[in-house]
Design goal:
The chain has 92 residues and is α+β, with helices and mostly antiparallel strands. The protein contains three helices and four strands, in the order H-E-E-H-H-E-E.
Length: 92
């Protein structure tokens, strides 16, 4: 069973503490409580929403097909991540 599958199974039957085993202190993994998707980093988590945070907006999570269109992919553990081309910094 993959890490993500174990975590999703855990969410169906949480422990007495209610803690998600993937969201240990010090981890960079993020869980969106709205769409129930895991993200490999906070920046990827922030980018999966339609607009930056603002109260009383029509903010929503992108669908899986929208995420893929925007260059997101899942890693071997099933966490969403963005694949960005490596660009070497050039001194000016």
């Amino acid at each position: 069973m993959t890490t993500l599958a174990r975590a999703l199974e855990f969410r169906k039957t949480p422990s007495a503490s209610g803690a998600d085993p993937l969201l240990r202190p010090g981890t960079r993994i993020c869980l969106c409580r709205n769409c129930n998707q895991y993200f490999a980093s906070p920046s990827t988590f922030d980018a999966h929403r339609t607009v930056p945070y603002a109260p009383y907006t029509d903010r929503r999570c992108y669908t899986e097909s929208e995420l893929r269109e925007k260059g997101f992919t899942t890693n071997s553990q099933g966490f969403w991540r963005r694949v960005e081309p490596y660009v070497k910094a050039v001194d000016k």
